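Input record (Table S2, row 300):
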Amino acid sequence: MNATLIDGKVFAASIREKVAAHVARLQAEHGLTPGLAVVLVGEDPASQVYVRNKGQQTKEVGMASFEHRLAAETSEADLLALIARLNADPSVHGILVQLPVPDHIDEAKVINAIAPEKDVDGFHISNVGLLATGQKSMVPCTPLGCLLMLRDTLGSLSGLNAVVVGRSNIVGKPMAQLLLKESCTVTVAHSRTRDLAGLCRSADILVAAVGRPQMIPGDWVKPGATVIDVGINRIPAPEKGEGKTRLVGDVDFAGAAEVAGAITPVPGGVGPMTIACLLANTVTACCRANDLPEPEGLTV
Ligand SMILES: NC(=O)C1=CN([C@@H]2O[C@H](COP(=O)(O)OP(=O)(O)OC[C@H]3O[C@@H](n4cnc5c(N)ncnc54)[C@H](OP(=O)(O)O)[C@@H]3O)[C@@H](O)[C@H]2O)C=CC1
Ligand SMILES: Nc1nc(=O)c2c([nH]1)NC[C@@H]1CN(c3ccc(C(=O)N[C@@H](CCC(=O)O)C(=O)O)cc3)C=[N+]21
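Output record (NDP complex):
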């Protein structure tokens, strides 16, 4: 392996330390405890793991964690009523509804029912519009985590060619907005893109957010490029025993690490940063709600 490993676990721990310090100060000086409400509808096992990790880490940094686990058959009206209660609750500074929600619930309606200042995912149309026009907003956690790692690795991103593979509202599109804001020349690729290989080979920064295990081989990576692998894919791992699985990204890590200048692993890359940025956004939301100075270096 030639590339530098971008260690998301270590970076995320340093963010959590800063968050914890700010939380302690809010508590000591203002008697405030930032609170995060996480809503999970249904019983998707992967989602349950994330919700558990989020709840645990929220408490570890001294914030209040409110978990709402609703049955898969919960009606849209009941979910909207819960969101209205959380919007009105002054002890809740951040609200996250785990996606996807079951098919009978309109996802856009649910996201846009969250008070924008409590929308720590940054998915509300107000936050999307604010980010797109370069105004202060809540920044989506996964792209924020990716950007913090890119800045740490590269310093200035100005003028670099960035290719984002994937155009989802939760990763690809906001990632492209953040890179554009950093003055990268940004191309967003998707399932209809022609010559994806050639396009990827032009990237100084390659962000993969597709959801296809190891689809980007090493020979699509420009020598020296910085590769950010957002993908979280569970694949069979018979070498670990019958029925066992392991996590891999959207990039063939071993191949890409021979060519890239720096690369994030899966697990231990973007995932831990996403949760750390969620905590950071919650503290930021609490500060904004109380007209207090925000922690420095934890948003863009
Ligand atoms: N680490 C973390 O914190 C997080 C990780 N993830 C992971 O990131 C990955 C992407 O998530 P998400 O953005 O929600 O996924 P979506 O399924 O919403 O979007 C996937 C995107 O990839 C594109 N795509 C699909 N197949 C191809 C292909 N063959 N070639 C090029 N592009 C393709 C799709 O194109 P089209 O639009 O044309 O269909 C789409 O834009 C998943 O593995 C997910 O688990 C997600 C969120 C957070
Ligand atoms: N409203 C909403 N906001 C989200 O941010 C959101 C969501 N819904 N739905 C699902 C995706 C996925 N996601 C991850 C977060 C952390 C890890 C993570 O911590 N991963 C660890 C490994 C965890 C494990 O071992 O299973 C790692 O990559 O090292 C992964 C994935 C957030 N998402």
